[in-house]
Each structure stands twice: as structure tokens, then as C-alpha cells.
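WARN retry 2 of 3 for item q-0093 after timeout on previous attempt; input resubmitted unchanged.
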Amino acid sequence: MKDVFLSLGSNLGERAENIARAIAELSGHGVRVVKKSCLYETEPVEFVAQGWFLNCAVEVETDLTAPDLMQALLAIERSAGRERGAPKGPRIIDMDILLFGPLAVREAELQIPHPRMTERRFVLVPLAEIAAGVVHPVLQKTVAELLAETRDRSEVRLFS
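OK item q-0093 returned
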């Protein structure tokens, strides 16, 4: 499957290394990275009493189904030491499927396109860097349009 986009974030430990390790592990799960955005430092949203995140977006190709890809991402998170504590709280690594080609999935454990991606600059800014013209399969708007329209005004700055 082409036109698959993931979001990765970390706000614990060596954030950039956590993300780089998670991206490197994708290949061992049948996922090939095609393109990667820069890293962005982003202020926490909703649960704000925590450190800033590093976030990026990656475009990947895979023969996995969407549920199998989600299981691979969860396995990578577990291998990195992710523990699911407070919702939206601190984490070593967080990996989400944003878009899976033209697919729309609405299941209890998996929702694609990611249901809150349009409300999050920390997702849209890195995604727009690598996929500004990609069309959201449900809303029929490009990523660039979604970024321009989002109400989120949280800070997202290039990480150096």
C-alpha cells in the first residue's frame, strides 16, 4: 500500500533518538520508509503539565493491512519501553497511522484517517512538509488546506 502516513512523537528521554530508533525498526516489520519530515518541537496539547514533544511524520509503503500495521506500531512502542499511563501523558514513543491510502476505517481499536489529525498542528505541520497535496479521503481536502483551516494554535517549531 502506498500513500501511508504515520506520526511519531516523544517527550521522554532522548527524544530524537527514540524517534530515530522507532523509524529504523519499521523495516523489521515489513514497512519501508519513503520520506521523513524534519523533527519539530511541539508544545503539549490537552495534558499540558509535561515536557515538550518532538514530532515528525513519515511516508511509508507496506503490504500489511491497516490492522497489522497498527499491531506492528504497538510492538515497536512496547520494545521501546512505552507504558500506557495517563491518556495524552508523557511517553517514550507514540506512533499513529494518520492516513492509509484511500482507506477509511472506523473500528473500536483503529480509526483511519486519524480522527483528531485535523485538530493538531503537531501532526499537520510535519505532514504538510512531506505531503501537502495529499487529500484526506473523508474530508476531500489537502493536508495544506487542513493545516490552514485548523483552529489549533499550539506552538510547533523546527528542531535543530
